[in-house]
Amino acid sequence: MNDSQGSGPAPAVPPQARNAAHGAERGPTPAALRRRLAELRGPGVSARPLDARALAALAANPGCRRRALLDGAGVDKGVLAEALGSPAPFGQSQFAFARGNAFEARVKAHGGFELLRLVREHLGGPPAAAEESARVPDLAAAGPEGRVARTALALREATDTAGERAWTLLDHPLLALDVAGSPAYLEPDAVVVDPDGRWTVVEIKSFPMIDGSADATKVGAAARQSAVYVLALERVAAHAGGARVDDRVLLVCPKDFSNLPAASVVDVRKQLAVTRRQLERLTRIEDIAAVLPDGTTFDVSGRSGEQLTAAVEAVPAAYAPECLAACELAFHCRGRARDAGAVESLGRGVRGDLGGLTTVGAVLAAARGEAGDAADPAVAALRRAAALRAEALAGAGGGPDGGGAGCP
After folding, report:
1. Is 149:138 a contact under the CB 8 Å cutoff?
2. At how many degrees (to 10) do helices 269-281 and 216-237 cross?
3. What are the distances in angstroms from CA 209 to CA 66, 254, 273?
4. Among 129, 188, 246, 395, whose Cα sits 20 to 30 Å from the Cα of 373?
């Protein structure tokens, strides 16, 4: 007898059940994800905000699930690194911090008159009377979500009134950007809306601009950071008619060794394209958290170094030497990579050239002919390099240990 005979029509599934099933397929709800991330931080531990500098570093290494999860959960990586015994020498001195704040206040004084002068001088715009200053809307609101909404409203209002030939200066606006399923709140130094409705990010730094140019490394870091702000502004501009986000950023620095402001225009189109592409590659945070062992937490309170190390190592990392300048956990990750003999500790370029050879031991064995497929281009190149080295040492009168003739 067929099991379906006499069974009748299938019972209707309630809409609530269907919605719940679809929600389970999509993943945890935002509330459930927030609870999960709070568990990873530990009870009573406030989330550390994800700023543009950290986001730019994360976009530069999208394969690092460890950083994506810790930053998304708001874990203080500096405190965690110290508890692991590998503190990072990051941070800014109080003197430098106070000097930077004083310089920024000078640039924005008197309704941003000096800042407007620099914007018009370097980016163009209608001339202004000597006494003209920008409109500076109040962006205060309750909580980050309120500040983000107030910033978006101020930007739309400034764009709607652009025809009145008025300039608007948004002092420390707050922008939101979705990063791997978790919101990141970003606070640029300033955004200027000109009378034509153009939105321009202004980045104010305390390093000097000598003879019209600044340190290339520092300018590059500022460009990557500013690209994150431009990307977040584009999300707001998509809902504001007539808005146009400038892909050029105004970088303001002290002139020479004085406290007078100087500026230069930085084109961030390349950094913007890279940041956009890399952020899209990030694995969603809930997918990373879902595979962690039960009870995993990064709360340093009452936990030994071994327990914290086990929690950190449960999340895969993608270490590269560049991490040393951008991540508080880099020294811990470097130590683990060296202990494992991973070729990643030698750099991304070396790792890419070596193909399937993932450890230093495997590389040396392949070069000596003790292991590896001779048809593998990486193995063949290593053996050619080893042969050339041996030939060069033999010609110099040295032995295989690298000693030359006449060496003690």
Report:
1. no
2. 70
3. 36, 6, 27
4. 395
Q: Residues of the chain with pLDDT > 90: what percent?
A: 38
pLDDT of 30 strictly over 80: no
E-assigned strand segments in 113-189: 168-171, 175-179, 182-186
CA–CA dist 56, 221 (Å, integer): 9
Q: Is the dihedral of CA 196, 199, 204, 210 positive or negative?
A: negative
* Dihedrals phi, psi of 213, to nearest 5 degrees: -140, 150
Q: Which long-range contacts link 62-66 to residues 24+ away (Cβ below 8 Å)? A: 62/278, 62/279, 62/281, 62/282, 63/281, 63/318, 64/317, 64/318, 64/319, 64/323, 65/283, 65/288, 65/315, 65/316, 65/317, 65/318, 66/312, 66/315, 66/316, 66/317, 66/318, 66/329, 66/333
Q: Which of 288, 352, 344, 287 is nearest to 318 (CA)?
A: 344
Predicted pLDDT of residue 11: 45
Structural element, H or E, at residue 250: strand 248-254
Q: What is the pLDDT confidence band of residue 190, given thresholds at 50, 70 and 90?
A: very high
What is the reported pLDDT for 248? Answer: 95
Enumerate the β-bridge partners of residue 210.
Answer: 213
Q: What is the DSSP string of 308-337?
A: HHHHHHTS-----GGGGGT-TTHHHHHHHH
Task: Give burial (CB, 10 Å; 0-12/13-18/19+) of 185.
Answer: middle
Q: Largest Cα–Cα distance of the chain, in whole Å?
A: 99
Q: Are 81 and 332 in contact (CB under 8 A)?
A: yes
**Residue 204 in this model has a pLDDT that exceeds 90:** yes
Q: What whole-number distance in Å separates Cα of residue 379 and Cα of residue 139? A: 60
pLDDT of residue 326: 84
Q: Average per-residue pLDDT in the chain?
A: 83
Q: Please report, for residues 30, 178, 203, the alpha-carbon distance to residue 33 in angstroms, rounded to integers and kept in the order given.
A: 5, 14, 33
Three-class SS state of 240: coil
* Residues 281 and 62: beta-carbon distance below 8 Å: yes
Q: How far is CA 15 from the centre of its chain?
A: 41
Residues 340-368, mean pLDDT to the nearest whole number? 85
What pLDDT is attached to residue 163?
A: 59
Give the per-residue pLDDT at 17: 42
Q: Cβ–Cβ contacts within 10 Å for residue 61, how many? A: 21
Contact 228, 275 (CB under 8 A): yes
Residues 6+ apart with CB under 8 A from 368: 386
